[in-house]
Amino acid sequence: MGAGDVRRVGLSGGVGARKVTVLAESAWSLTLFWVACGGVVGWLVTLLADWFVTLSWAPLQGPAELLNSVPEPWQTVGAVGVGAVLGLVVGFTALHESLAVSVSPSRVELRVRDSSQEFGRDEVALAVRDGKKLVLLGPDGMEIARETSELSWSKVAEAFAEHGYRWADEDPYRAEFRLWAPGMPGLPEGADALLRARAVAREKDGGAEDARELRGELLRLGVVVRDEKRRQYWRMPRGS
């Protein structure tokens, strides 16, 4: 995982045709990786079951004894098969959650889950790697997109540079981010409440989509947010 597919597609015919570079995770390799992981986990479960039944104090004695009651080779075949199926489900989920990037001389498109964001050439002043995030910055320094990426960073950088976009391996505004604490001064009206709500959403299982929407609300107030572990950092572009 991490290398992904790179495709260069012609947008018009003839000599000098404009091209769009498409970067996306390889569906085949990503799914195969998780199926293999699931199969290995299933096999390890059979080994653990053999060990657990010898320990009177170990938890899950009932399931371990039930698994051990299945004769070989069906015990191993069944466990590996179930693990592979679960791995297949995880693989499809990971593929659905993965980022795909399309870059052409006139636009940039980011696709993740069932949504896409498209930006014209004049909207993208700089493309940046920030840890595992691909960040797009506007001419005023405002962040216009931030998405998790498992793509090869060298290929992402090459795609942007090939089409004439500026690229940076580190956010040039990183030093301007301040650690957020409830009630701190300097934020526009309403931003502190949104950051509080976002902090709560980030702690919840399944709260990622709420945190994403709240980030968008903060951007509308002129506040850029980045996450580092459980902390939120913020900055306001000059002139906001």
Summarize the structure.
It comes from Streptomyces ferrugineus. The chain folds into three domains: 5-25 and 98-168, PH-domain like; 27-96; 174-235, no CATH class. Helix content is 39%, strand content 24%.
List keywords for this structure.
240 residues; alpha+beta; PH-domain like; 5-stranded antiparallel β-sheet; 4-stranded mixed β-sheet; 12 strands; flat
Write up this protein:
This protein folds into three domains: 5-25 and 98-168, PH-domain like, CATH 2.30.29; 27-96; 174-235, no CATH class. The protein is 39% helix and 24% strand. It is built from six helices and twelve strands. The strands form three sheets. Strands 1-2-3-4-5 form a five-stranded antiparallel sheet, with helices on one face. The protein has a four-stranded mixed sheet with strand order 8-7-6-9, with helices on one face. Strands 10-12-11 form a three-stranded antiparallel sheet, with helices on one face. The longest helix is centred in the N-terminal third of the chain and has 26 residues, at 27-52. The model is unreliable at 10-17 (pLDDT under 50).
Per-chain topology:
Elements (H helix, E strand, L loop, with lengths): L4 E6 L8 E6 L2 H26 L8 H8 L5 H24 L2 E4 L3 E6 L2 E6 L5 E5 L2 E5 L5 E6 L4 H10 L4 E2 L9 E2 L11 H13 L4 H13 L3 E5 L2 E5 L5
Parallel strand pairs: 6-9
Antiparallel strand pairs: 1-2, 2-3, 3-4, 4-5, 6-7, 7-8, 10-12, 11-12
